[in-house]
C-alpha cells in the first residue's frame, strides 16, 4: 500500500520535470585501498534526457553503473532514483532501472523466450508476450525466440541483454557499451530503437567507446576521468566550447613546400602529397582565400569540423599532447 | 528486515530453479536414482539374502530410509550450489542484485528448488524400493515432512557453498571431501551404535545423525536415540543453516563487491 503511494508520488514528481537520477558526492574505493574508483561524483539527470557517460577504460563509469545496479556498495554520497533513495528504498528503486551490463550475462540453459519470461517475473510483472515480441522484433531476434542462450552469437547475446533490460518497462535505461561486437547495420537499427525509446519518454544513459554514437544520439555528455566528473554539459555547449577547430585537407603537386608559402603560420602537416591545415573555425574564409592564391594546382579538397572525439581526447588526454589549434 | 516484498518475483525464482533441474533430468534425477538402486542391489541384496537384521528389522527395510535421506542430502545440496556457481560462470549472478527481491525471497527461491529436487529423489527412491521392501511406512506424512526438513537444511548449506565458492571444482570439493564422508558416517548404511568402541560415541556427534535417525523413525517406527531429542535437534539444525544462508545473502557474500 505504502509502496503504491510512493510510486504514485514519484510518478507525479517525474511528470513535474524533476530529476530522475540524482548522484551526490558518490565515492568508491576498492577494498585493497589502492584504487579510488570514484571521487565525489555529482550530477543530476532529468526525465527523458539522453545522456552519454564517457571516459577512458578504468575511469569509473562501470563502477558507477554497478552502484546503481546494486552490485557495488558505495563508500559515500547519496543516490536518488526517481526521487527514491537508493539506500533506504533500495527495492523500490530497482523497478525504475533497466541495466544492460557490459559483460554478457545470459542464462545458457534457457531459450530467449524463457529468459525474458523469468526476467519479467523477477521484477514482479506478468509476462507480456506481445511486448516481448515487439522488443525482439526491434532487436532483430524474432527468429531466435526458441533458441537457447548458449547457441546465440555474441552480437545476439548483446541484443538479448537489451531486451532483458527493457522487459519490465523501466523509466531509466542504462546501457554499458551496448554495441560492442554488434555489426554496423544492427548498430544503426539499435540507434533508431533507442531514439524511439527516448520518444516514448524513457531516460537513457549510454556509455560507449564509439564516440560518434554518443554524438549522434545524446543530448548531454558527462565525462569521467580517474573517478572524477571533468565535463557535464549539453552536447552542443560542449562542442561549441571545445570543438572550435576545423581542418582542410588538400592534395597538391609533388615538391610543394607549404611552409615557404602564404600558409606559413597555420598548423600544417604534410604526408606525401596530402597537406592538412588546422585552424580556428573563424579563420575558414581567410584560409580558403589563401588557398586560391597558392601557385599550385589543388587536386582534391575536404573540410572537416572537429567532433566529440577530439573534445574527448582533449579533455581526457594527459600531458597536453593535444593539438589545441584544431580544437 | 523485509521478508516478502515481491512474492511474484520469488515465485518466478522458485519456478526457475525447478525448471532448471527438470531440463537436465537425466543428470539431476535419473543419475542419483540409479546410484541409489545400485546401493540397494549391492548392500540390500547381498546382506538381506544372508538374513542380516538390525534390531528387529531386516537390512533391506533398514536401508530404504537411509538411501532416501542420502538422495535428499546430495540432491538438495547440489541444486542451489551448482545453480549459483552456474550463475557466477554466466555472469548472471550480478542480475540478482538488480532484481527487486528481498534477501529472504532470494533464499526461499533457491532453497525451494533444492528441497523440491531432494524430495523428488527421496520419493522416487522410496517408490523404486517398494517391490523389494514393501510400501509400508510407519508415519507416511511425517516421513515426507522429515525428508523436507533435510532438504531445507542441505539446500541452505548448498546456498552457502554456492555463494562462497567461485568454481564448480570448489563445490565438488565440498561435496566429496566434507559432505560424502559425513553422510556415510551418519548411519545411512548401518547402525551408528554398532561402530566399535569410542567411534560409536563420536559418530553420535555427527550433525547429520539426528536427521537420518528422524527419517528412519518416521519410516520404520523405530530408530536409534530418542526421537524427541533428535526431532528437536533436526529442527534446530534446519533453522540454523537457513539463518546462516540468509546471513550470507544479506552480507552479499559472492554477490556484491
Write structural notes for this entry.
The complex is a heterodimer of chains A (327) and B (257). Chain A has two domains: 45-73 and 96-240, P-loop containing nucleotide triphosphate hydrolases (Rossmann fold); 245-305, Alpha-Beta Plaits (2-Layer Sandwich). The relative contact order of chain A is 0.12. Chain A contains eleven helices and 14 strands. Chain A starts with a helix and ends in an 11-residue tail after the last helix. With 327 residues, chain A is an alpha/beta fold. In chain A, the strands form three sheets. Chain A has a six-stranded mixed sheet with strand order 6-7-8-3-9-10, sandwiched between helices. A four-stranded antiparallel sheet of chain A has the order 2-1-4-5. Chain B has 257 residues and is mainly alpha-helical. Chain B has one domain. Helix content of chain B is 76%, strand content 2%. In chain B, strands 1-2 form a two-stranded antiparallel ribbon. The longest helix of chain B is centred in the first third of the chain and has 32 residues, at 59-90. The radius of gyration of chain B is 19 Å and the shape is globular. Chain A binds chain B through residues 30-31, 66, 69-73, 91-92, 94-95, 97, 99, 101, 103-110, 114, 118, 121-126, and chain B through 2, 5-6, 8-9, 11-13, 15-16, 19-20, 23-24, 86, 90-92, 94-95, 97-102, 252, 255-257.
Amino acid at each position: 500500500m505504502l509502496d503504491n503511494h510512493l510510486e504514485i508520488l514519484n510518478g507525479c514528481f517525474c511528470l513535474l520535470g524533476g530529476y530522475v537520477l540524482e548522484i551526490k558526492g558518490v565515492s568508491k574505493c576498492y577494498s585493497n585501498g589502492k584504487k579510488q574508483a570514484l571521487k565525489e561524483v555529482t550530477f543530476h539527470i532529468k526525465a527523458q534526457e539522453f545522456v552519454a557517460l564517457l571516459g577512458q577504460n578504468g575511469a569509473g563509469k562501470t563502477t558507477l553503473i554497478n552502484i546503481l545496479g546494486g552490485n557495488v556498495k558505495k563508500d559515500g554520497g547519496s543516490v536518488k532514483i526517481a526521487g527514491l533513495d537508493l539506500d533506504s528504498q533500495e527495492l523500490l528503486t530497482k523497478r525504475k532501472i533497466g541495466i544492460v551490463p557490459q559483460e554478457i550475462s545470459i542464462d545458457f540453459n534457457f531459450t530467449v523466450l524463457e529468459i525474458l519470461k523469468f526476467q519479467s517475473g523477477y521484477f514482479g510483472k506478468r509476462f507480456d508476450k506481445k511486448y516481448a515480441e515487439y522488443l525482439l522484433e526491434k532487436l532483430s531476434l524474432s527468429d531466435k525466440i526458441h533458441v537457447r542462450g548458449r547457441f546465440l552469437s555474441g552480437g545476439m547475446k548483446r541484443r538479448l541483454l537489451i531486451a532483458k533490460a527493457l522487459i519490465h518497462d523501466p523509466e531509466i535505461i542504462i546501457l554499458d557499451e551496448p554495441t560492442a561486437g554488434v555489426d554496423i547495420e544492427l548498430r544503426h537499427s539499435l540507434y533508431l530503437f533507442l531514439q524511439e525509446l527516448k520518444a516514448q519518454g524513457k531516460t537513457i544513459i549510454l556509455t560507449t567507446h564509439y564516440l560518434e554514437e554518443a554524438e549522434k544520439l545524446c543530448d548531454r555528455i558527462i565525462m569521467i576521468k580517474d573517478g572524477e566528473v571533468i565535463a557535464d554539459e549539453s552536447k552542443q555547449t560542449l562542442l561549441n566550447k571545445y570543438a572550435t577547430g576545423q581542418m582542410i585537407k588538400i592534395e597538391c603537386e609533388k615538391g610543394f613546400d607549404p611552409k615557404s608559402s602564404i600558409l606559413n603560420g597555420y598548423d600544417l602537416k604534410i604526408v606525401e602529397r596530402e597537406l592538412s591545415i588546422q585552424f580556428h573555425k573563424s579563420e575558414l574564409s581567410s584560409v580558403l582565400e589563401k588557398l586560391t592564391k597558392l601557385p599550385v594546382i589543388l587536386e582534391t579538397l575536404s573540410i572537416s569540423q572537429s567532433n566529440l572525439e577530439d573534445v574527448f581526447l582533449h579533455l581526457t588526454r594527459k600531458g597536453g599532447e593535444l593539438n589545441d589549434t584544431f580544437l | 528486515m523485509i521478508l516478502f516484498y515481491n512474492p511474484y518475483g520469488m515465485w518466478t525464482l522458485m519456478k526457475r530453479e525447478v525448471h532448471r533441474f527438470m531440463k537436465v533430468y537425466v543428470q539431476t534425477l535419473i543419475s542419483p536414482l540409479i546410484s541409489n538402486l545400485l546401493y540397494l542391489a549391492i548392500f540390500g541384496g547381498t546382506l538381506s539374502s544372508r538374513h542380516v537384521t538390525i534390531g528387529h528389522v531386516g537390512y533391506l527395510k533398514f536401508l530404504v530410509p537411509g538411501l532416501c535421506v542420502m538422495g535428499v542430502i546430495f540432491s538438495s545440496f547440489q541444486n542451489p550450489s551448482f545453480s549459483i556457481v552456474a550463475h557466477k560462470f554466466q555472469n548472471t549472478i550480478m542480475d540478482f542484485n538488480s532484481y527487486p527481491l528481498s534477501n529472504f525471497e532470494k533464499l526461499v527461491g533457491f532453497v525451494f528448488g533444492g528441497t523440491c529436487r531432494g524430495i523428488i529423489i527421496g520419493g522416487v527412491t522410496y517408490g523404486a524400493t517398494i517391490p523389494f521392501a514393501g510400501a509400508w511406512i510407519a508415519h507416511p506424512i511425517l516421513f515426507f515432512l522429515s525428508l523436507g526438513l533435510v532438504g531445507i537444511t542441505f539446500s541452505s548449506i548448498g546456498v552457502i557453498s554456492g555463494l562462497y565458492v567461485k568454481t564448480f571444482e570448489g563445490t565438488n570439493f565440498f561435496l566429496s571431501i566434507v559432505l560424502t564422508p559425513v553422510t556415510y558416517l551418519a548411519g545411512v548404511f548401518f547402525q551408528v551404535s554398532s561402530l566399535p568402541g569410542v567411534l560409536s560415541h563420536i559418530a553420535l556427534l555427527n550433525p547429520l545423525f539426528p536427521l537420518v535417525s528422524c527419517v528412519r523413525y518416521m519410516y520404520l517406527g523405530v530408530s536409534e536415540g530418542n526421537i524427541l531429542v533428535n526431532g528437536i535437534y533436526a529442527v534446530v539444525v534446519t533453522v540454523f543453516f537457513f539463518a546462516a544462508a540468509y546471513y550470507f545473502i544479506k552480507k552479499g557474500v559472492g554477490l556484491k563487491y
